[in-house]
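Minutes, project check-in
Item: structure for the 500-residue chain
Input as provided by the requester:
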Amino acid sequence: MSRTRAEAGSDPADPSHDERAHRHRWLILGVLGLAQLMVVLDVTIVNIALPSAQADLGFSNGDRQWVVTAYSLAFGSLLLLGGRIADLIGRKVTFLVGLVGFAVASAVAGASVNFDMLIVARAFQGAFGALLAPSALSLLTTTFTDPGERAKAFSVYGAVSGAGGAIGLLLGGVLTEYLDWRWTLYVNVVLTVVAFAFASALLSRTARDPNVKLDVPGTLLVTAGLFAVVYGFSNAEHQDWGAPATWGLLIVGGVLLTAFAWWQTRSPHPLLPMRIVTDRNRGASYLGMLIASGGMFGVFLFLTYYLQTGLDYTPIDSGVAFLPMVGGLVVAATLATNVAVPRLGPRLVVPVGMAIAAVGLAWMTTLDLSSSYAAHILPMTVIAGFGLGLVVAAAMSLGTLGVSVHDAGVASATVNAMQQVGGSIGIALLNTLSASAAADYIAGRNPRDPAVRAQAALESYHTAFWWSAGIFAVGAVVTLFLYRPGAPKELAGGAPTIHM
């Protein structure tokens, strides 16, 4: 059964039709975008600060991975639960709790006096981020229901989500160089004060939906399954694919997620109703986000290594070098959600975006130690960013389009989960392949020769770029066949239909 937007608006608990929320909807977009920026940039902002943090707290090279992994593990494995909590107790309450918890955990992490304190705080950051991200996206979904305004809102939100990693690199470099590594964490407190003040005043509290129940078995299965998968791929990054801690966890994660999918077809109150993922456009968007994130985070990571170790860029210089990529991403995101998807449909836009990103990454394999920024790096990054913008903005918008109000949180969480899990898988896979390429090049050569080491590093970057290009090429083919032809009727014009 379905109901029109006008009928949906008769629900007084729906914040998207509250007069105050509607009047200040563009300010609300700014608040939600700021919250999403905090969550996304925290994946990369700490990377540049790691050497300083390691020197200050005295932890080993083997331990430093946990500064990043603790966050991604908690974030990725708890996202679906966070999305359902937003549906269960209300999106505004969940958003505000997520904001405050994220800020407190950030402050504790910044004030860390030892490694253990830092890791625990980072894990709590991830846990509260799992409340914050899906509630922000579901608030956006329920605040903007007019097709034209929704397209504009999602173009901004998609641009923020896609560019957050690059912004994190720039901001991390600035804060580390001019202040202290701890400010890469304290900055979240400053951003939270602004976001909380506006959110508490502008957002409307939603009543608890009595139809939403917590699926405890499903929650346990998916949380444990995602944890095992993300942890398994993180282990592959630092150990070996043949290590039991890698393949064993991946198998366990796969079994648990399969059991979760089976249980969702039988649970009276499923955590992830199958109607959400079996819709062709939404399912294609989730898979597209998973694939794009796998390649996207690889771009940020290995291009940063190339700029800093290959061309001797400072952290700030390398962050600034990413700005044209961000510009291309913002332009493409605006184009995708406002013009291309409503007129042409995602079946053309998303695969084209994947293909453009693949071309940009394949072009990066021509970089060498004498490449200049203006002639070589700049055009490649703009092209890759443009392709990313088409994919991410469209996937975020369509991944939540057409869901019922009480499913908005879990649909939003699914989009975020695909982004996080895809990024974790991509980084682990590309790190392993690039390390193997460097070792193969050094074999039979003098490993102490600086020229050999430099060329080995370049070979590792080229390998990562080739595989990233391949990931996007696969994504282009997959999304071409999965998306429905034509523009979604909810975006092409008229009132959107909300499926119940």
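Outcome recorded: The chain has 20 helices and two strands.
No further action items on this chain.
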